[in-house]
Amino acid sequence: MELLKQRILKDGHVKAGNVLKVDNFLNHQMDVALFAEIGKEFKRRFAGCGVTKILTIEASGIGIACLTAEQFGVPVVFAKKSQSRNIDGEVFTTRVESFTHGRVYDIIVSKKFLSPGDRVLLIDDFLAKGSALNGLCQLVEDSGATLVGAGIVIEKGFQEGGELIRGRGVRVESLAIVDAMDPETGSVTFRD
């Protein structure tokens, strides 16, 4: 998606440790007009898949998931990173490691929001090592729902996450795949 790539080049910042900061438009301050275009692109790529639910993980994926869900006319479910008092009943849960935060989380979805009749599209802002996305795949599998694919805004193609998830047989559609980043020059190279 050329619009996204240009925005990354213009406003993204490469930091040491394979970190691409896009917090001024993607995952802290959100450019809603860009999110709308991202949602349209995911709709185009997954049209005809019969999506009934969008699943993401809190917090950065929620905005993108909402504008994607609007295109499909379906609800968004987000996996919470901690048990709270307002989650009642039985839950699906699995553990994920956050590359960004360097922590391990239990992610939780109430069983009343995922069922065997659902056709689920996963949406997330980044795919790096694949732990979060792998955890979301596990939740869908545990629910008995059908996983139709994963829509990723930015994939770090030089890390193992894409290969891991595709190796599970999951269709992954990434709007921008970064092949290389240089923190010294700030340069970002994309896969075609």
UniProtKB/TrEMBL annotation:
The record lists 5-phospho-alpha-D-ribose 1-diphosphate as bound by A128, K129, G130, S131, A132
Q: Which GO terms describe its cellular component?
A: cytoplasm
**Listed SUPFAM superfamilies:** PRTase-like
Specify the Phosphoribosyltransferase domain's residue ranges. 42-157
Q: Which reaction does it catalyse?
A: XMP + diphosphate = xanthine + 5-phospho-alpha-D-ribose 1-diphosphate
The record's InterPro entries line, in alphabetical order, gives: PRTase-like, PRTase_dom, Pur/Pyrimidine_PRTase, Xanthine_PRibTrfase
Q: Does the keyword Zinc-finger apply?
A: no
Residue ranges of the TM segments: none
Localization, per the record, is: Cytoplasm
Entry binding sites for xanthine: L20, N27, K156
Q: Which Pfam families match?
A: Pribosyltran (PF00156)
Q: Which GO terms describe its biological process?
A: purine ribonucleoside salvage; xanthine metabolic process; XMP salvage
| UniProt keyword Lipoprotein, yes or no | no
User: What pathway does this protein act in?
Assistant: Purine metabolism; XMP biosynthesis via salvage pathway; XMP from xanthine: step 1/1
**EC code:** 2.4.2.22
Q: Which GO MF terms are attached to this record?
A: xanthine phosphoribosyltransferase activity
Q: Which UniProt keywords apply?
A: Cytoplasm, Glycosyltransferase, Purine salvage, Transferase
Gene3D superfamilies cross-referenced by the UniProt entry: 3.40.50.2020
Tell me which family the UniProt entry assigns to this protein. Answer: Belongs to the purine/pyrimidine phosphoribosyltransferase family. Xpt subfamily.
What this chain does, per the record?
A: Converts the preformed base xanthine, a product of nucleic acid breakdown, to xanthosine 5'-monophosphate (XMP), so it can be reused for RNA or DNA synthesis.
The entry describes its oligomerization and partners as:
Homodimer.
Its protein name is Xanthine phosphoribosyltransferase
Source species: Anaerotruncus massiliensis (ex Liu et al. 2021)
